[in-house]
Specification:
This protein is α/β, with parallel strands linked by helices. The chain is about 45% helix and about 15% strand. Strand 1 and strand 2 form a beta hairpin. The longest helix is centred in the N-terminal third of the chain and has 19 residues. The chain is globular and about 60 Å long.
Length: about 475
């Protein structure tokens, strides 16, 4: 399988895009053509364990990695006790025709582990094969950073430079990142919001001389390796939901997914799964008060907010106003035409808006995409309601997804809500929702009390360049 840029040009195979991050022209890597899974092929996948399924699905995209080697990568990523649940992704009923897809059983208690554990293994494998090093430059709004650092810590050929917005994450999220003392992990707290961090990452990645001189790469959801690994759990969730369905009806049995969304990577993976033949009826996107994506899917107008107008909310991992992965969807929306896609992003630079309202009817009719917004009061009420009715406590981001999911439930169509993180990562908000103090367990208390190592930095590109230049690994 070959990869191309959303803005034109070829990029090579899976291992190439794994290391490169952004394309040289600022576009994102996408497969030249998506694979397709027939009903017979889906049935062949049904008895597989999660690591085995990951080998099969990721193997459709990573065709340059020998199958036995790939099986070893997925076995290590999803084995060795890294995930608390034996099935890796457990499904549990929430009532009202809703099911929770448990994606937070990994080491950092967030769904980002599902892709990052694989990405860490894959990066080490490719770098060893090519005798290279990689300096990962990333931005996080909460969970990507800790998942990346825990997957990459201690590796000889990888160094991590992770930007996070000062004061915009929960105490647990900060502690998970800043308490790491590994020499190859560099935490940088930037004055501003997540979009400021993301803009710094993009500016350095599009400076090809600096990027090549310092072997810069990316592990946030602009890296297609993560997208491919996230497709796996959509396939897994459909398989598990249809295990008890009559054999003759399975191939067309539809489910819907509700997906809390910030940078659009998670739901983009669902879009690809649907495009590959998984019977998905609806992909319901949930935003918080930073509802730029909800506005886009309701109106066709994409209007990212300025940093000053990006709100600090109680679901902080979704405090994103400029969603990088939307470009991959727009590429498909515009007939996979790189010239039209590049023109759309030129329009965004010129006018701070992309007008795709002419395509509005296609969002739901062709792609199954719907959206909605959840507020602070909504997530408090949703957390409280699910705890009272089911005994299940969900985190604030998952609550955003569940709230919007309820608005789109259809009779006979299971609604699968993707879990974002474990609730203990947001103890203050959970305490507020439940009206009782949530006492941290011993592990949480130890984490919060651990010494932290972080560098504060203004939103200054030159300072960041100097910092990386002094600390980057070189082959």
């Amino acid at each position: 399988m070959q990869y191309i840029s959303t803005r034109g040009g070829t990029l090579g195979q899976f291992s190439d895009v794994l290391l490169e991050g952004l394309a040289p022209n600022g576009g994102l890597a996408v497969p030249e053509a998506l694979p397709h899974l027939s009903a017979a092929e889906l049935e062949r996948l049904r008895p597989l364990s999660y690591p085995e399924l990951a080998t099969e699905i990721i193997g459709l995209f990573a065709t340059d990695i020998p199958r036995d080697d790939l099986a070893g990568l997925t076995s290590r990523a999803y084995g060795d006790g890294k995930f608390a649940a034996d099935e890796i992704v457990p499904l549990s009923e929430l009532g009202d025709n809703m099911t929770l897809v448990g994606l937070s059983e990994g080491p950092t208690l967030a769904f980002k582990d599902m892709a990052m554990q694989f990405l860490g293994e894959a990066l080490e494998y490719v770098l060893e094969k090519r005798d290279r090093v990689l300096n990962v430059l990333g931005a996080t709004s909460g969970d990507t950073g800790s998942a990346a650092e825990h997957a990459l810590r201690g590796l000889d050929r990888v160094s991590v430079f992770m930007l996070s917005p000062q004061g915009r994450m929960s105490a647990f999220q900060r502690a998970q990142m800043y308490s790491l003392q590994d020499e190859n992990v560099h935490n940088i707290a930037v004055e501003g919001v997540f979009d400021d961090c993301q803009n710094l990452v993009k500016r350095l990645n599009t400076d090809l001389d600096f990027k090549r001189a310092h072997s810069l790469g990316a592990v946030n959801s602009i890296n297609f390796g993560r997208i491919s690994a996230q497709i796996v759990y959509y396939v897994w969730a459909w398989l598990r939901t249809t295990d008890e369905v009559d054999t003759d009806a399975r191939s067309t049995f539809e489910v819907s997914f509700a997906v809390p969304s910030g940078n659009f990577g998670n739901i983009l993976s669902g879009h690809y799964a649907r495009s590959m033949g998984i019977p998905i009826r609806k992909l319901v996107l949930a935003t918080n008060e930073n509802n730029v994506l909800d506005e886009f899917f309701r109106t066709g107008h994409y209007r990212p907010r300025s940093s000053a107008n990006t709100l600090a909310t109680s679901s902080p991992s979704m405090d994103v106003s400029r969603a990088s992965n939307l470009e991959r969807f727009v590429f498909d929306l515009l007939g996979r035409d790189p010239e039209r896609t590049a023109a759309a992003w030129h329009e965004l630079e010129e006018r701070d808006e992309i007008d795709l309202s002419a395509e509005l009817n296609r969002f739901e009719e062709e792609f199954g995409l719907l959206s909605g917004t959840s507020t602070h009061d909504d997530r408090l009420a949703t957390i409280r309601d699910f705890r009272d009715r089911t005994g299940v406590t969900i985190d604030p981001h998952t609550a955003d997804g569940a709230k919007v999911a309820r608005e789109h439930i259809e009779t006979g169509i299971p609604m699968l809500v993707l879990e974002t993180a474990k609730p203990q990562k947001f103890a203050d908000l959970i305490s507020e929702a439940l009206g009782e103090t949530v006492e941290p367990d011993d592990d949480t208390r130890a984490l919060l009390a651990a010494p932290q190592r972080v560098t504060d930095m203004p939103d200054d590109e030159q300072q960041l360049r100097s910092y990386i230049s002094e600390r980057a690994l070189h082959a």
